[in-house]
Design brief:
It is a single chain. By secondary structure, the protein is an alpha+beta fold. It has two domains: 2-233, 2-Layer Sandwich (PmbA/TldD fold), CATH 3.30.2290; 243-450, no CATH class. 26% of the residues lie in helices and 36% in strands. The chain has nine helices and 17 strands. The protein has helices at 2-31, 87-103, 135-150, 220-233, 251-264, 267-271, 332-337, 362-369, 417-422, and strands at residues 36-52, 55-73, 76-82, 156-175, 180-198, 201-211, 243-249, 291-294, 317-321, 324-325, 352-355, 372-379, 389-400, 403-416, 424-427, 437-438, 442-450. The protein has a six-stranded antiparallel sheet. Strands 7-12-13-14-17 form a five-stranded mixed beta barrel. The chain has a five-stranded mixed sheet with strand order 10-9-8-11-16, covered by helices on one side. Helix 3 (135-150) packs parallel to helix 4. It is globular, with a radius of gyration of 24 Å.
């Protein structure tokens, strides 16, 4: 208890120091003639302990500092940053940003976020949970994680290691329009990667958990066993013949589908006219049972924030309701380019919840699919947001009559994202909480599967 209180007190002292530095930089930029200023100052502390085959492999303590500065001289913009918070380095950063702004072309869409959109209330989202363990305790947890996996089955033949990572971040962000915010966050992770071998060959897989508060972890041994189970399940993988069939994306890879959608409705792609979802507000993109909602203020959420990277207040908001696109994802610059207003998404989305009708678990989705492909891993970057064309390497499991038959590898799945999104049959309740994109498994009616 005393260690935690000391950590909290120390963090407040550090935030006070960063706040004083921020106010000084704002003042100095205005004195040099900047009409608008946006800056952030941060200090990140971390500990990483990695083991492999029962031996300590690496121990790393980090303390990263940074200042990111953007100044505007009218509609001319200049940016600079530094990882050194010494007085000399900050002086040079201010000079560089101002010099760049004086010599760049004007852009009528440049400038700070609209003042009436800025956040001025900062509720506690329960994001600060320092993990007060020693290096020795972190090593023991990593050893426990790896041992939990290696001891599960004699076919676990090797290990790529297990690690425990502890992270704390303190930041102050401010603009010359009156936005001023202090933030402190923690993020911790335990992970393991293992190899299994039988007469058919060798396979590798991994598992991890990421949390704000260490109390929310499963046991380290459980995480290791999960990695082992996933690795063992891949033994005996083979390819399949080319065909069209239903495809079930498990939650970690279903996130990538949602990520493709987000890329297509983001302001940068839209004002460049590089998206297959141009002019789609008010139009159906998904089946009518699909809702996608942004919930920025979830307590302990991995994507929770009261404001975006420009200081615009975040709020609960539909992105998709009843399958219909409700809005785009915009920061100030892209919003002005499109003649719209910022949606509080400069820097990305904050806790996106994907849901469908019903509450089917993974087993129910297998039954609904009948015969088809479960995808657990995707490879390659064969996605065009301009046309929607989609082609990626994949591995997973072949399913017949709702039962997993055998693992599959060295295949390609292909379609067009318009058809993939419109062809979603169901979304599972097996939500993966390890990300700011919260979705269960996604079952797609039909895709082309190409094998050997």
């Amino acid at each position: 208890m005393n260690e935690t209180m000391t950590n909290r007190d120390t963090s407040q002292i550090e935030l006070d120091r960063l706040a004083g530095l921020t106010e000084d930089v704002l003042r100095r930029c205005r004195a040099k003639g900047a009409s608008e200023v946006d800056l952030g100052v941060s200090v990140d502390n971390g500990l990483s302990a990695s083991v492999r085959l029962g031996e300590v492999e690496s121990i790393e303590r980090t303390r990263d500092r940074g200042l990111t500065l953007t100044v505007y001289f009218g509609r001319r913009k200049g940016s600079a940053n530094t990882a050194d918070l010494s007085a000399d380095s900050i002086d040079k950063t201010i000079e560089h940003a101002c010099a760049i702004a004086r010599y760049t072309e004007e852009d009528s869409c440049n400038g700070l976020a609209d003042p009436d959109l800025l956040a001025h209330e900062f509720p506690d989202l329960d994001l600060w949970h320092p993990w007060s363990i020693s290096t020795e305790e972190a090593i023991e947890l990593a050893l426990e994680c790896e041992a939990g996996g290696r001891g599960l089955d004699p076919r676990i033949s090797n290990s790529e290691g297990a690690s425990v990572q502890i992270g704390e971040s303190l930041a102050v962000e401010a603009t010359s329009h009156g936005f001023f915010a202090r933030a402190r966050e923690t993020r911790h992770m335990i992970s393991a990667a293992l190899l299994a071998e039988d007469e058919a060959g060798m396979q590798r897989d991994y598992w991890y958990e990421a949390v704000r508060c260490a109390d929310d972890f499963s046991s380290a041994a459980t995480i290791g066993r999960k990695a082992a189970e996933r690795t063992l399940a891949r033994l005996g993988a083979r390819t399949i013949g080319t065909r069209q069939c239903p495809v079930l994306f498990t939650p970690p890879v279903a996130r990538s589908l949602i990520g493709n959608f987000l890329g297509a409705v983001s302001g940068g792609a839209l004002y460049r006219r590089a998206s297959f979802l141009l002019d789609h507000i008010g139009k159906p993109v998904f089946p009518a049972f699909v809702d996608i909602v942004e919930r920025p203020h979830l307590r302990r959420g991995l994507g929770s924030s009261v404001y975006d990277s420009e200081g615009v207040a975040t709020r609960d908001s539909d992105l998709v309701r009843g399958g219909v696109l409700s809005r785009y994802l915009l920061g100030s610059y892209s919003a002005r380019k499109l003649g719209l207003r910022s949606t509080g998404n400069a820097g990305g989305v904050h806790n996106l919840l994907v849901s469908g009708e019903g509450s089917e678990d993974f087993a129910s989705l297998l039954q609904r699919m009948g015969t088809g492909l479960v995808v657990t891993e995707l490879m390659g970057q064969g996605v065009s947001l301009i046309t929607g064309d989609y082609s990626r390497g994949a591995s997973g499991f072949w399913v017949e009559n709702g039962q997993i038959m055998h693992p599959v590898e060295e295949i390609t799945i292909a379609s067009n994202l318009r058809e993939v999104f419109a062809g979603i049959v169901a979304i599972g309740n097996d939500v993966d909480t390890r990300s700011h994109l919260l979705t269960g498994s996604i079952l797609v009616e039909r895709m082309m599967v190409a094998g050997g």
